[in-house]
Design a protein that fits this description.
two-stranded antiparallel ribbon; globular; alpha/beta; 13 helices; about 325 residues; single chain; eight-stranded parallel β-sheet
């Protein structure tokens, strides 16, 4: 299937994604506990600004403000009946920004986890998960999203349910998981496990990888884990910008733009094709990342020691795959 993302991937050896959604919206006035998706209707001008910040900083891909736009999460705000409307609005605003950019920019419809535990451990059945993801996907499709972008997933069952739903919507997709528990997802998957999961899907993603997690070093170790298996699909790296700290009533991430520039280049050299930021990543970070990716030549695949020397130590001695050599723990950077 030819689409904006596949066409870019055919002509470029790296693409830059966007940064944080929540961090930027909190800076615009979003209150903790509020549903960001409601702003697609209540403050479309601010969502347009959010998208424009990424595009102006050089992003080739930006994610829509729809991470929690499924019925399960919206039910917490009494908005489960607005799934299609809120997702459609998120994508429509994105389509407007992308089309006005003067270049090819991919509108990626963000789809986050349902927030429920999948059966048999929890109450969420496969059928219901597919139904929820499909409803969200149709709204994003109607709004003009180029691709769907599954992110921050922990359970393989939920990843597979989304893949099935996206096939029903007839939409190309990308999908990342969060490896935030000693190199594994919360439900125990390693980078090797994810490669096997993706290869076994009836409707595999165009690109796959990791987002969020526990700092840039850990995320790059996971990317190295993907690369070690000779994957045939583009790898995504979308790491947090440093350590979250509470200052003057706000959460602040201490990863500098210069640090994120180092992370971006190392992510590319580790084997990632699509590189962006997650929590705490602002326009200033993206600008430095884009400049570094544009001007610094590709280098050899970095070692674990080289990663920790530049970005800080790992949060765990191993990533769970059993074939990595732990690097010295120096200047550990806490969760980002």
């Amino acid at each position: 299937m030819s689409n904006a993302l596949s066409r870019l991937l055919e002509t470029r050896d790296w693409l830059m994604a966007d940064g944080a959604t929540g961090t930027n919206l909190f800076n615009m006035g979003l209150s903790s506990g509020d549903a960001p998706e409601m702003w697609n209707l209540e403050h479309p001008d601010r969502i347009k600004t959010l998208y424009s910040l990424a595009v102006d900083a050089g992003s080739d891909i930006f994610l829509t403000n729809s991470f929690g736009g499924n019925a399960s999460r919206l039910k917490l705000h009494g908005a489960e009946g607005q799934v299609r409307e809120l997702n459609r609005a998120a994508a429509e605003i994105g389509r407007e920004v992308a089309d006005a950019s003067g270049r090819v920019v991919v509108v990626a419809g963000s789809v986050g986890p349902t927030g429920e535990i999948m059966a048999p451990m929890g109450p969420l059945t496969h059928e219901l998960a597919v139904e929820m993801f499909h409803e969200q996907a149709e709204g994003l499709k109607e709004g003009g999203a180029d691709v769907l972008w599954l992110e921050t997933i922990s359970a393989p069952e939920e990843y597979a349910a989304a893949a099935e739903a996206f096939k029903l919507a007839d939409m190309p997709w990308c999908g990342t998981m969060s490896f935030d528990t000693a190199g594994r997802t919360m439900m125990g998957l390693t980078s090797e496990d994810m490669v096997k999961l993706v290869r076994g899907l009836d409707n595999p993603p165009m690109a796959f990888g990791a987002n969020c997690g526990v700092g840039a070093s850990d995320l790059l170790r996971t990317v190295l884990g993907f690369s070690a298996h000779g994957v045939e699909r583009p790898i995504i790296a979308k790491g947090n910008a440093g350590i979250p700290k509470y200052e003057d009533g706000h959460i602040h991430y201490d990863g500098t733009p210069e640090l994120m520039a180092e992370y971006a280049v190392m992510a590319r050299d580790c084997g990632a094709t699509i590189i962006g930021g997650c929590c705490g990543t602002m326009a200033a970070h993206l600008e430095k990342m884009h400049d570094a990716l544009s001007t610094r030549p590709r280098g050899p695949r970095p070692t674990l020691d080289q990663i920790t020397a530049l970005l800080g130590g790992f949060s765990s001695a191993s990533d769970g795959t059993g074939d990595d050599v732990p690097a010295p723990r120096r200047n550990r950077r806490r969760r980002g």
